[in-house]
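Worked example

This section walks through a single chain of length 230. The input is the sequence exactly as stored; nothing has been trimmed or padded.
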Amino acid sequence: MKNLSVFLSLFMLISVSLSAQIPPDQDWAQFGRYEEANAGVAVRPLAVLIGDSITDGWDGKDPGFFSENNLVCRGISGQVSSQMLIRFRKDVLDLNPKYAVILAGTNDIACNAGYIAPENILGNIISMCELAKAHKIKPVLCSVTPSARFGWRKSITGVSEKIENLNAMIRKYAEENRIPYVDYHSALKDENGGLPARYSGDGVHPNLEGYKIMETILMESLNMHGRQAK
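Given that input, the structure is written out below as tokens.
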């Protein structure tokens, strides 16, 4: 409890620091994006999927996957892990799902909100896991999906290596803490560590075929973890 209090104090300081640099009329974490949709969730979801554009585009490409499996999509395009952490309460905890499926890191590596060290990306992911556990929600960690370059941030080099390094950190934390790790990366990557054209139009965002592969991997993980928990 003491550690959680320290974390919350530090988190408030970070939030205040960030808010000083953001226009006062801007909803930086985009709490408003899902406000109405959250109010309409009447049944406890099996899982909430929180993430960036890779998650955001998923339910648009295959809405049946979400409705048929009682899943809720809470991805927001362009977001970094800090923004996901800030809205984690509203978009995940308050919906009280059985699982919180966390897919974060692409936009951190792309420096969408400025540079952030890999250990701090992992720290944001760990904080989401800790918050989920504190609310008796089971966290599920996903690998960052493969990319060889970012079209909107061409100055970032060594993209595939940075993704693989972050994934190794996420996997290690998941294994050490008995958290399910969903490995999209190994199933989707090409020989260069990128996302091949058959799975994506831009080398970053999956197409329907790519999402279908991710769906199989995710549901196998959730079903396996559900059986083990019985």
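What to look for: DSSP finds twelve helices and five strands in the chain.
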